[in-house]
Amino acid sequence: MKFDTPAGPNPIDRGRVIGIPHDRIDGAAKVTGSAPYAYERHDAAPNAAYGWIVGSAIAKGRIATMDLRAAETAPGVLGIVTHANAGKLGKGSMNTAPLLGGPQVDHYEQAVALVIADTFENARDAAKLVRIDYAAADGRFDLAADQARGVNPGKDADTKAGDFDAGFAKAAVKIDQHYTTPDHSHAMMEPHATTAAWNGDRLTLWTSNQMIAWGVGEVAKTLGIPKEKVRLVSPYIGGGFGSKLFLRADALLAALGAKQVGRPVKVAIARHQIPNNTTHRPATIQRIRIGADKDGVIDAIGHEVWSGDLPGGGPETAAQQTRLLYRGPNRMTAHRLVTLDLPEGNAMRAPGEAVGLLALEIAMDELAEACNIDPVELRIRNDVQYDPEAGPQRPFSSRKLVECLRAGADHFGWAKRNPKPGQVRDGRWLVGMGVAAAFRNNLVQKSGARIGVDAKGRVIVETDMTDIGTGTYTIVAQTAAEMLGVPLDQVTVRLGDSRFPVSAGSGGQWGANSATAGVYAAAMALRTKLAEQAGYPADQALFEDGLVKLANKSQTLASLAGRDGLWAEDSMDYGDLDKRYAQATFGAHFCEVGVDIDTAEVRVRRMGGAFAAGRILNPKSARSQVIGAMTMGVGAALMEALDVDTRFGFFVNHDMAEYMVPVHADIPQQDVLFVDELDDKSSPMKAKGVGELGICGAGAAVANAIYNATGLRLRDYPLTIDKLLKAQAA
Amino acid sequence: MSSDHLTRRGLLQGSAVLAAAAPTLSAAAPTPKTSGANAMMPVELTVNGREVHLQLDPRTSLLDALREHLHLTGTKKGCDHGQCGACTVIVEGRRINSCLTLAVMHDGEKVTTIEGLGTPEKLHPMQRAFIVHDGYQCGYCTPGQICSAVSVLEEIKAGIPSHVTDDLDDVALSDMELRERMSGNICRCAAYPNIIAAMRDVAEAKA
Amino acid sequence: MRPFTYERATSVAAAAKAAGSVQGARFIAGGTNLLDLMKLQIETPTHLIDVNHLGLDRIEKTEEGGLRIGALVRNTDLAADKAVRRDYAVLSRALLAGASGQLRNKATTGGNLLQRTRCPYFYDTRMPCNKRQPGSGCGAMQGMSRSLAILGTSDACLAQHPSDMAVAMRLLDAQVDTMGADGVARSIPIADFHLLPGDTPHRETALKAGEIITSVTLPRPIGGTHVYRKVRDRASYAFALVSVAAVFGKDGTTRFAFGGIGAKPWRTPAADAAGKQGAKAVAEAALTGARTTHHNDFKKTLVERTLASLYRQQEARA
User: Is A121 touching B (CB cutoff 8 A)?
Assistant: First the structure.
């Protein structure tokens, strides 16, 4: 099915199942611990041996010698995979550095060996016996020091409209500031993990991966085997946030290890290895210039971003939102990429916007203050209903930023905010409120599904789509139930298996809309088949109550399905609606913080937000996505940072004790409003995504609240106690 | 296949093997080789009300004994270093991090895991409350959260103070108390307010 | 984790004797720190002596009117103990500010005193660290040292002592009661129990080989208002940037001990004596000789601010 014209009325609009805050259908499996994750497949791969990764002790250079004798003869050791015996390996097109290093080493903790043993304890112990001598080379690890070496990384790195320099030069009010964000770690709860088993030349990987079809392709490419020989299975994924978009060392080494020892092998990347072995969100340096008239109306806006990555890597596209969020005839954005030898940078929840808005939305707060305008009002004044680079001929498919700002402000009690910083005291706390806009592009991806009705009338959906905590199982079931007119509990959903039709996968917050649109397409095909079977014209048949109806006639799904069941498969593909229309999701974050008058400890007292993201398929799971992302925004604002040792070239705080993420005690009540919206240009579901929208701007709302509480304007994230104390002393 | 089933099977076969004095009594576990440098040690646990007999490497954590030997994989390994709480189980009535303790240290003790609290067919009230309040997303920290949540309500009832208790002799349930006491269970998906709501529900139903 | 043999000790004397006679033997109690380090092979004992069943889990009054706390008393139980809550509230508060509920259920009084540093270079076995591998250098000195100590450090080591409980014990003038491998019991004042790094940062306590902690004894209650204030990067489940334990006596006397800033739990007579002059004076007295890096110099300010916060609270009470 092709989606190339705006959606008209369709069965989803009935809203009997879709749009209802149903409990998750995978809930019972999760709360009882019976949902199987990648390292737990005793059922599928009994007798799996245990692999333990040896990571590089240097950031750059070569392995001079590798002495495996002690490890090989250690108790229980079955084999050791290294570059020397792994055979010729390709490199996945989405991997920047090889997943198995050696003799060349590209970054600290890059896997250089896998030790396989009969027990976990033996594998872990023997891995310590691998002796490696390195010839270390000088590397570059300091983004700030090498900022001037940044190069234009190509495609869309520079954008412009009008004449930014001229516009900015003549502006009555000017903001020109630098902001920095550190490297972030996804820190999902389930480590990267894979159980691998070969059956002849066929490889099965029970793994934790957000993108099944990408994974299959990358495994095949890296191992040099046909895609048809590779199966990936990921029914449950213990968090991803972008860390599991790609093939990583656990999967590759488990496959190589299983081949070498002739039995299934399972590998989890140890927690302390994850920050340096896998990907992270790269640090940024950002410069934002805004020129406005004295009423705050923007005439010129410029956003420049510097970030680093390994050779062949890509930039953190933190200026992305600045192209679309606010008005202004004169605009420019630029990204510069600095080659660094730190571990591999890549996507983390809302790549680009998450850190771009940390900067831009402080800048807007600064502009509001410079113009003496309420920051909510400032954003409303600068709303624009079309792509400001392209002009009115490219309108937004739907854009309810203003509605979000108004509804959110109203609900949060924004009117009570004292615009003058440092005025509100509550005991030992200085109290302040902050606002920030939320923006995240809406991406659509081709997505397929297979849907059937069995002899009992049960509806079954199969797609390689994944549920990384997003609620996919439930919204896919809701979509199928709505389309075929059955209750939710009559639907079985099977996900995350490369034997199922290729889906959009979970990334870029496109999953919910794209994957359910794929189910919609398959369900339309099945409706046609069922109607034909019933002898009714497909376009007149009504699907409800487990029946296919025509006027006063009806037949049950079960009877139409027959003994063998009835199946249909289709996918949703997209035309150029996303070119003709700018498509994005919007929202407004509000935050109240307390800052200790003596110690500068910051506590978030409450958070709220209003969001417009098209049809909300399941308000319960969507709300959870948003509050979870808001919390990650709190982390970015207050505590999250991978500390770089620029001598040794690694992230120093590489475990969960030292890389801080918010805990229960950091997070108060969070209120989420969804503003009514149907986006008929997004898909037949008229939905968009929310999984990333919630982090976009959340941290800036915290930063702006801190400013309102204290009068301290910090532009260097995270806003920790040491920085607040220093700012206070300055 | 439910874990409950596995455990029962483990026990039955375990009993059979006991007589033969074989090296392992867990049916589901791979046959341990004598290859480990460590001499295996007998460990007897009562897990979820069932006695299990294991022969374990002394290095085996309680967490790995549950997951790899008893195939009770509901208890999760998030960090293996006491930094996340995903491995929380209840031993002798108290919640602990099962990753930071050796199985041999618990010989003769009672262990309750998520599988022992309830099953999909017969949910524990806390498990049901987590579903109703969407107190999870990816599900990986969830068993640990639930084991902690159940214990936390007991700890408050027992008058054990916390960091946020104003008067050490007057312990009362509040959202702030729940948040502080649950802080050893990290949820990166951050279902935090939903978890607190679920706990409040269960506490109020009990009261 | 290197292979080891394991035994359950049946008596204190037997445990101490075994520890003294087996090369590489270590006691294991809660295990929350030791096993963490063993998994990374920062600790590599060849023999573990499980002391959990020695009956050292009682809290009892001493003849002097103090409290004897068995070395195996869990953090949770110690914090919740009625007498501790009433007479040594600063100890309850310090314990409750540390770790998580799960860890406090396992961690013991004796073990907590032996807790090792959280310095990230100590934790990464590929990095230089004089404490972990004497003579290898200090990775932190020119590296990331934001969380590390500013008092009692040396050119060899910046490691901070991570314990909260030990800070309160230091404030309360606790005695660490031990039994040696030779069966001889002794009592070590807490002030002398932890060693400064000097040239030998791998030596952390006054314990001799095989010596086991049997209890920690608190002197008679000193009354006054007990407070423990811990400042950290998140609201809970994090080590201190700075912590202050304090007792404000009814007679105007004061005591202060500090965590997060010292190579060991930090207390000075000068700081205690400066109490009447307020936060700034106490901070100045406590911070005499502080050596900071570019990353951790904020701790000096934070000590003063944390004290100011305590004084503010204290005034509000009065």
Answer: yes
